[in-house]
Amino acid sequence: MPEAHSHPHEHLHDHCHDPNHPHGHVHENQKAVVNRLARAIGHLGKVKRMVEEGYDCSEVLMQLAAVRAALDNTSKVILRDHMQHCIVDAVVAGDKQAIDDLCHAIDKLMK
Description:
Number of helices: 3
Oligomer: single chain
Shape: elongated
Number of strands: 0
Distance between the termini: 37 Å
């Protein structure tokens, strides 16, 4: 059992920064993230159909912009939640690796 933390989100983030437990926590915004991902998948499916049906390239590009915006907004929700909870836990625990991992993930996200 993980050690208790002194902030109000301890029950949601038992394994936030432990790479050996990638599914060990539920974020308070999980439902919003899942909904945003479903929306992005819907947009991407629309792009595929548009290409298959021979839509004008500018219309396809506009739909691709919607996909990108949906993914970017989803990333923001995940990042904000991670910083407000998991990284707070890591700082309290003196876990520099979690901060390094976050920096690496941001580098990959913003390529």
